[in-house]
Design a protein that fits this description.
Layout lengths: L1 E6 L7 H5 L7 E5 L2 E10 L4 E9 L1 H4 L7 H4 L9 H10 L1 H4 L7 H4 L3 E11 L3 H5 L5 E8 L9 E13 L1 H16 L9 H9 L10 H8 L4 H10 L8 H4 L11 H16 L3 E5 L5 H7 L6 E6 L2 H12 L3 H4 L2 E5 L14 E5 L10 H12 L3 E7 L26 H15 L1 E8 L10 E8 L3
Parallel strand pairs: 8-9, 8-11, 9-10, 11-12
Antiparallel strand pairs: 1-4, 1-5, 2-3, 3-4, 5-7, 6-7, 12-14, 13-14
Helix pairs in contact: 4-8, 8-10, 9-11, 10-11, 11-15
């Protein structure tokens, strides 16, 4: 089982400093499944390659289990898998942490890298690595070159090229190799959730296949997967480059955090105590609401079962008194639901833009007509602000599931129509930094029912 790491960053021989392995010396490391060897097949100022060879002991690998033929004759010694991931963590652990006392500025610098895995499971390689900035070359490996009619094997010769910090490249491999293989060789326990979130903290939350990665890395154990999904740094509705809080010099709050703070502040000012979070998703707003004892009853409703399971896992971690104030239901924003009538406030946080425009009258009727709370709070993106994010192509919405994004005038027109039809008044509150030309990134409409 091989992994080669090549750089052309000059002087290329400094790769030895980053890996903490001297290019002039071959080294051996004992690992739980055999022995790992590190050596440098090429070292020049223009190009240097370090190779990690994992020599798996198949007998030792199954010594604690039964000795069936299938346990001895398999791809474990050859194809990249969780075995190689563990070896990377042990042999290159300091490099993964980005520590290099001899060349600290180099450790913090993205450099041209080429990673090669000569035998790697082919499924999902492109969809996992390309979103991380890698150029992916996956060359199919035939079952037997002497018999081309037999076709290709389930493996590819995988070559990744990109410009990244070495620490980032190694941590991505560390997480994604078990995901590609989908057959971890060791028992997955609760501490694997922490391990995953530590290794993926810089990129996993914004990866389009984060659920696939989390599920496979945690060996399809639902409890751990739901916990990990609940704890992941949440995706904001800004372009990815703007979401990475690690790049913010003072760790500024995300737009999503500002939205939640604005909603909670408005609910306090309105004197609302019994709240419905309609379209609650994974329960992030519920977490904010439950910390304030002024909110005596909190109901989360979502149409999708999977986010509700994540929300339920989050609620289970609340203190007993907090958990007693929260109820979760499955339901739709476009159908009248007697379970949410009579509440002080209904919140639709980043919900309406996910509804097809022809269904908006049904939403208005279900919320303002049937549920008829004293207050309704609606947040939605301000499409005018999109021009301020250079990484968002012109004409593109912030999220692939957005059916529309409104200007401030369009939200005002919709809100006025709702008020006229259902007896509410509305005021508009900007959320986020207000640009003098295009306004704030998020629009918050606060509806209050007229006295009868």
């Amino acid at each position: 089982m091989l992994l080669s790491v090549t750089t052309t960053h000059r002087p290329a021989a400094d790769l030895g400093f980053l890996l903490h392995k001297h290019p002039d010396r071959a080294q051996r490391f004992e690992v739980s499944t055999g022995a790992a060897h590190v050596f440098y097949p090429e070292v020049t100022e223009e190009r240097t390659t370090a190779t990690l060879l994992l020599d798996v002991d198949p007998i030792g690998l199954v010594r604690k289990g039964g000795n069936t033929l299938g346990q001895y004759v398999n791809d474990r010694p050859y194809a990249a898998s969780s075995l190689l991931s563990v070896a990377i963590g042990k042999v290159f652990g300091t490099a993964m942490r980005g520590r290099c006392d001899a060349r600290p500025e180099l450790a913090a610098t993205p450099i041209p890298l080429e990673l090669r895995l000569p035998a790697c499971p082919r499924a999902h390689a492109r969809r996992l690595f390309e979103p991380l900035g890698w150029s992916v070359e996956a060359t199919p490996i035939p079952l037997d070159p002497a018999f081309p009619d037999w076709g290709d094997s389930p493996y590819v010769d995988l070559c990744l090229r990109g410009t990244l910090r070495l620490a980032d490249a190694l941590t991505q491999l560390y997480v994604l190799l078990p995901v590609l293989d989908d057959a971890k060789h060791y028992w997955v326990a609760a501490d694997e959730v922490d391990k995953l979130l530590r290794a993926g903290k810089e990129w996993l939350a914004t990866h389009p296949d984060r659920e696939l990665i989390t599920t496979r890395y945690l060996a399809h154990k639902r409890r751990y997967t739901e916990e990990a999904m609940a704890r992941l740094t949440e995706l904001d509705d800004r372009p990815e480059e703007d979401v990475d809080e690690q790049e913010q010099p003072e760790r500024l709050p995300t737009l999503a955090q500002l939205r939640r703070e604005a909603i909670v502040g408005q609910l306090r000012d309105l004197g609302a105590h019994r709240i419905v979070d309609l379209g609650c998703g994974e329960g992030r707003l519920l977490r904010e609401l439950v910390t304030d004892p002024a909110f005596t009853e909190i109901v989360g409703v979502d149409v999708a079962a999977k986010p509700l399971r994540v929300a339920a896992a989050r609620v289970e971690r609340f203190a007993d008194r907090q958990r007693a104030r929260v109820t979760l239901h499955q339901g739709s924003v476009t159908y009248a639901d007697p379970r949410i009538t009579g509440y002080d406030a209904v919140v639709l946080c980043e919900v309406i833009e996910h509804v097809d425009p022809p269904r908006l009258p049904a939403l208005a009727e279900a919320v303002f007509g049937a549920a008829r709370p004293r207050h309704v709070l609606v947040t939605t993106p301000n499409v005018e602000y999109n021009v301020r994010w250079e990484t968002l192509p012109a004409g593109r919405v912030r999220h692939h599931d957005h059916r529309f994004e409104w200007t401030r005038a369009e939200l005002a027109a919709w809100a006025d129509g709702v008020c006229a039809a259902h007896g509410y008044r509305v005021r508009h509150v900007p959320v986020g930094e207000v640009d003098p030309e295009v306004g704030a990134p998020t629009q918050l409409a606060v509806f209050t029912r007229e006295a009868v």
